[in-house]
Amino acid sequence: MSEFWLISAPGDKENLQALERMNTVTSKSNLSYNTKFTIPDFKVGTLDSLVGLSDELGKVDIFAESLIKRMAQSVVEVMEDAKGKVQENLLANGADLTSFVTHFEWDMAKYPAKQPLVSIVDTLAKQLAQIETDLKSRTAAYNALKTNLENLEKKSTGNLFTRTLSDIVSKEDFVLDSEYLITLLVIVPKPSYVQWQKTYESLSDMVVPRSTKLIAEDNECGLFTVTLFRKVIDDFKTKAKENKFTVREFYYDEKEIKREREEMTRLLSDRKQQYGPLLRWLKVNFSEAFIAWIHIKALRVFVESVLRYGLPVNFQAVLLQPHKKSSTKRLREVLNSVFRHLDEVGAASILDASVEIPGLQLSNQDYFPYVYFHIDLGLLD
Predict the structure, then answer these.
(1) Which residues pair with residue 92 across a beta bridge?
(2) Which of 170, 200, 317, 348 could serve as a FRET partner for 26 with CA atoms 20 to 30 Å apart?
(3) Any alpha helices (H) in the chain, and if so which ranges?
(4) pTM for this one?
């Protein structure tokens, strides 16, 4: 599983024994793989400041998780032709995400632990905000290019009624630069080919005999040329419609056809040029954002542990990786039982459903007598 539970308990003798007991039970029952999660000794400041910081960290945590999900999705979208290799590009410091989390070490160079906590949080928040700003501008430019290219490609793949004809027709199919004559393109249903050949010359006066030619087909229709005098265009269109033949509005313009082809070539070239730099940027900054997110989790554990367990700072953080989705309920029961002494009243209300405490709403799903945070890497799959 790519789900982690980050918990902490006081670091006194009783709770260190409880942690040992938890490790023994979860190991024997094959419930989870547990590792020590090391958090530096930060400057605590006042408890009042920690309360405000707790709220701020909650917001930054949500923002960071949202950002890395969006970045992961951007990698998927950019690598649309190689989706099987997406996970290879979602790394943190060159390691897969699970390895990074289980071997987490605080980056002292980037986030010095001697700084005030509020300064560290501010640095992380600004870093993530800048990544989001860059993500928006870079992906917007790439997506605009991609949309323009897709629109051009759609024009080349529709049916004969809607698709561009610039890659189908050629100069030789038309009478050009004539003051009196014009070549039209007519869409004829396949079952009506014989009817078209028999009637097109008589649909109007001044149709050039034997001037029709089939130049393209799709599953249902064919595209025919027909040459006639300009002054009978409207009459010919009316008669063609009565016979269920559709005159396609198209006039051969060599400059316009050349422009369309050059535009497609340019867009393909631009996408190719942007692909590599954008993917590299996403890889680097996904790593940076993910690393920042796990540092935020570490800060939250520290702040919440101090607020819950008090001063002096003395707690132990542990990272648990549940082995199976089906075992999470049992794992929760084990943890709540082992650390029940941290909150006897709350634990009693859960273990005895008949006990009601006014104003206290708890369930087995959201009750934790210990500090708890959830990390779900499955959201990035």
Answers:
(1) 95
(2) 348
(3) 13-28, 47-78, 86-89, 97-102, 117-157, 193-199, 233-242, 254-309, 328-338, 344-351
(4) 0.77
Residues with Cβ within 8 Å of 228's Cβ and at least 6 positions away in sequence, in order, are 181, 182, 184, 204, 206, 207, 208, 211, 236
Residue with tokens 């070549």: 183
Please enumerate in sequence order all residues whose Cβ is within 8 A of that of 28, keeping only pairs 6 or more positions apart, or say none.
none
Phi, psi angle pair for 15, to nearest 5°: -80, -30
Please provide residue 347's backbone torsions phi and psi, each rounded to the nearest 5 degrees: -65, -40
The answer to whether the beta carbons of residues 75 and 90 sit under 8 Å apart is: yes
Long-range contact pairs involving 15-20 (C-beta distance under 8 Å, separation at least 24): 15/316, 15/339, 15/342, 16/316, 18/338, 18/339, 18/341, 19/316, 19/318
Q: What token pair was written down for 126?
A: 């600004």
Interval 235-288: pLDDT, tens: 999 999 999 999 998 888 888 778 877 877 787 787 788 888 889 999 999 999
Contacts with 381 (C-beta within 8 Å, 6 or more apart), sequence order: 2, 87
Q: Are 58 and 300 in contact (CB under 8 A)?
A: yes
